[in-house]
Amino acid sequence: MPLSVAMVGTRGVPARYGGFETAVEEIGTRLAARGHAVRVYCRTGNSETTEVYRGMELVTLPALRQRSLETLSHTGLSALHLLTHRTDVAMVFNAANAPWLPVLRAARVPVATHVDGLEWKRAKWGPTGRRYYRAAETASVRMSDALIADAQGISDYYSAEYGVPTTLISYGAPVLTDPVSDRLPELGLERHGFHLVVARFEPENHVDRIVEGFVASDAALPLVVVGSAPYSDAYTARIRALAAGDPRVRLVGGVWDQDLLDQLYGNALTYLHGHSVGGTNPSLLRAIGAGAATIAYDVDFNREVLRADGEYFRTPADVAAAVVRAERDTDGELARGKRLQGRAGEYDWDEVADGYERLAYALHSRSTPGPRRTARRGTRPSGAAR
């Protein structure tokens, strides 16, 4: 039986920003192809040119352009729209949107919340912001009909902290078996002739630590840094200051051309991944799917994906040693990338869509018990990441 499914809480599709948007596009496209009516709520500025995209209905609504209010204001308008335009189920992305869950309940729409990572650990939030995210996390547990975790570490955290189950559904990893390289000259690059970073410029992604370590190293190949971030002027300035005067560091800003981005992933000697609090990261999965030898920040989320074939860092000195070691053993790094590409086969978007479809049916039939019935919270903050 086809269902109507709302996807709420992201910037929307086409995916132009981060992991949530990528997940919504990949999952929503597949559900729509299976006959389900998929509605994606989008923010103004993302997709006004169309009302239907890859079989999904798009509803575009405004948002307050302030870091602390942008997500919450847009989700509020989306929830109000759902009051008069009900769907069979709703998938809410980001536990920060918990204040609007009572509106969805008033509309009698069963809801699953994708809780993402440990948002209250992000340095960009001050004490008030961190308290809010802890409270929203708890509210998501109590008011959602189901919780979605994208990493085992996140699932373990909710089990230990709140005593509730989650539905574990990771992201998918597109696999590039034979990446082309014809567009690399646009950036003055050669196949396997550069190191790569792709990340939003936020402290928890440790782009500054990567750049600092690289600048201190004797690496001969350039470091290509893809990324930027709204509301992060001070952190962006720090990264630029660390890179200043070193021609090996190339800050290219955001790259929204997926073909070019795939070529960067598929032809880098190494991919440096500094994400530390967000669970399973789509950039990491895209990198290993492209066969990139990955050097990742040492936390459980990243070890869960890379396992023994990952290289890990904590300090700038670790980064310096890793990139020099990679350049001294290019063949070994390429072989390591191939082994990681084999791991990518375990992250399949079709299987991810299967998981969301099963959960949607369970929600619609009310067979999923609401975790709010048993929610409890520990006495002090804890985290899955080391």
From TrEMBL:
Record bears the keyword Cell membrane: no
Domain of life: Bacteria
Transferase as UniProt keyword: yes
Short name of one Pfam family: Glyco_trans_4_4
Region annotated Disordered, chain positions: 363-386
InterPro entries: Glyco_trans_1 (IPR001296), Glyco_trans_4-like_N (IPR028098)
Span of domain Glycosyl transferase family: 194-310
Domain Glycosyltransferase subfamily 4-like N-terminal: 18-167
Sorted UniProt keywords: Glycosyltransferase, Transferase
PANTHER family: GLYCOSYLTRANSFERASE
Protein name: DUF1972 domain-containing protein
Organism of this sequence: Cellulomonas fengjieae
